[in-house]
Amino acid sequence: MLKSSKLLRPCWRLAPTLKANYDEFDYAYKRGEDGFCQFIDRPSQLPIEATAIFLFPGQGAQFVGMGKNLLKYPGVKEMYETASSILRTDLLKTCLEGPADKLRNNIHCQPAIYVTSLAAVKKIQHESPKMIENCVAAAGYSVGEIAALTFAGSFTFEEGLHLVRVRAEAMQKICEQIPGGMLSVRTTHESRLYDCINAARNACPLDLKTLAVCHCQIAAFLAPEVRVVSGTNQALEFIENHYEQFRLKSVKRLDVEGPYHTVNMEPAMKAMIRAFGKMEEPRNPKIPVLCNYDVKPYHFNVNPLLAISAKSIVYWEQILHCLYSRPDTYPFPVTVEVGPGRQLGVTLRLVNRKAFQRYQNVEV
């Protein structure tokens, strides 16, 4: 039996509060000079079905060619040029031409997803400005949190990019020291996922245990009966070879190159804390942005929670419950996946089919 009830507790503790206070998500976007950071109060009479929720993707969503459909929109080329200047690499060329192995590397992948996601906001601004004006909440998966917070006004584009760069460089160093990856795992009520993880840990050679406190663990709750397990390659290979013994339905390697969202990522957390110490204090988000770590809206606690999220479990399923749980008679907002891929749409469909009926993604 999958013992996840304790880990699901943050969602169910918070969901009634967010549902009861849904009308407090009454903010609207007013285009500022930088296109992201100025908001005004939304008229309270605006119906929920006229509002929008933005979801920003994380690593694994990247693909060679992303950004091609955004270049014609005002300000997009300038965003890539600014990023290339800061990063000292041609980010747009990497997005458009790859190769895939280069784009998978943290140092390129995380900034590419960040910039492409915010470039997608520019497309929405041009084609559907009302959708941005009526955006009432946002969330980002993993590195997508930084894009979501930038959109919500906590960071400037450059500040967010600096954080992404620090995060990516620190994670890349860890990946070079501890080769690993992530598995998407589908379970059933009969699955023994925790037993499988413990067996994988015990099966690893003893010398690997000196590399990290824990080299195999749950890294994310994606959707009902869908988990992400992160760890060293040897541990993941054990799960791939023995998952049926533990009644797991299926396992699939994700297109990432490190054991993310485990205690192995503590150096990345510390690097982000040092970076925050050299920056101005982040602004309070102008719309609710739900945190991966505690499934609560960020307030004036952006710095510590965003840093902790680098090494902590992503409670994505719980975030979706909190955003979309409501009485049967309540309508749903439009949900927009803002960035490359449609992976967050897949998780939304698994969590709430009614909400998914109003899902759309931005072609990048």
Mean pLDDT: 86
DSSP strand content:
5-15%
CATH C-level class of the largest domain: Alpha Beta
How much helicity do the residues have?
40-55%
What is Rg? 20 Å
Order of helices and strands: HEEEHHHHHEHHEHEEHEHEHHEHHE
Low-confidence stretches: 1-43, 207-214
* Biggest sheet strand line-up: 9-4-3-10-11
Give the biggest sheet.
Answer: 5 strands, parallel
CATH topology value of the largest domain: Malonyl-Coenzyme A Acyl Carrier Protein, domain 2
Q: Give the termini distance in whole angstroms.
A: 41 Å
Gross morphology is globular
Helix/strand class: alpha/beta
Under the CATH scheme, the architecture of the largest domain is 3-Layer(aba) Sandwich
Architecture overview:
This protein is of the alpha/beta class and 364 residues long. It has helices at 5-20, 76-87, 91-97, 100-104, 106-127, 129-133, 144-151, 157-177, 193-203, 233-242, 266-277, 302-309, 316-324, 343-351, 353-356; strands at residues 27-29, 39-41, 52-56, 135-140, 180-186, 216-223, 226-232, 250-253, 289-290, 334-337, 359-361. The chain folds into two domains: 25-175 and 264-361, Malonyl-Coenzyme A Acyl Carrier Protein, domain 2, CATH 3.40.366; 179-258, Alpha-Beta Plaits. α9 crosses α10. The N and C termini lie far apart (41 Å). The strands form three sheets. A five-stranded parallel β-sheet has the order 9-4-3-10-11, with helices on both faces. The chain has a four-stranded antiparallel β-sheet with strand order 6-7-5-8. Strands 1-2 form a two-stranded antiparallel ribbon. Mean pLDDT is 86; it is low at 1-43 and 207-214. It is 44% helix and 14% strand. A hairpin with a 2-residue loop joins β6 (216-223) and β7 (226-232).
